[in-house]
Amino acid sequence: MTINNDAPSPLWPPAFEAAIFDFDGTISDTAALWRRVDEEFLGARGFVVPDDYALTLSTLGFSKGAEYTIERFGLDESVESICAEWVRMGRKLYEAEATLRPGVVDYIGRLRARGVQVALATTNDPEVLDGLSQVDVASLFDVRVHGREVARGKDHPDIYLEAARRLGADPASCIVFEDIPAALASARAAGMLACGVRSSDPVQDMRQIEREADLVLDDWRDLARP
């Protein structure tokens, strides 16, 4: 089901009590920023970024992503040093360039005005997001859950269940907004409504998104105030 201005339900009026949002790709187009991090990081070590690398990292979070990177490329480095380097590189780019996608702030504000609780569930590091100069993430969401706070990545439902727990919400009353097929499958496995969001990431597979999602949103501006 694709949502547009002619058929916004169940996204508006909201047919859920709590909404859980991913950050990268879903509410902020940051794929190009992380591509630059990947190119600089791997390039400095003599590697070209594999086509599947970014998609693999997207569900893992920093620590598990670093473990994967060490194993895949045979790096003689620690998880801690790689994570610290990624945080430094990502924070610098986010401070200068990261913004929210048009329509996101308006939609979240309208949800909160209706009494819908909102949470951020992201594999991104809090130090990176706290460096945002153009986005006040702290005031936008009722709670935040970062990948390093749960045991497993977004190929499991841990982060969404933790977000629901912190909100005091029944998973069945929640919706999850995501741009990754594996994450959408995890949200559905948790008993939540899963909304796939089209992003600007060239590696996003919309056919997979449509298979895993209960509904698909092409653009946040499709939910603009009438």
Automatic annotation (TrEMBL):
Q: Which GO terms describe its molecular function?
A: phosphatase activity
Q: Which CDD domains match?
A: HAD_BPGM-like
Checking Pfam families in the record gives:
Hydrolase
In terms of domain of life, where is this protein from? Answer: Bacteria
Q: Which residues form the signal peptide?
A: none
Alphabetized NCBIfam families for the sequence: HAD-SF-IA-v3
This chain belongs to which protein, by name?
Haloacid dehalogenase superfamily, subfamily IA, variant 3 with third motif having DD or ED
Source species, please? Parafannyhessea umbonata
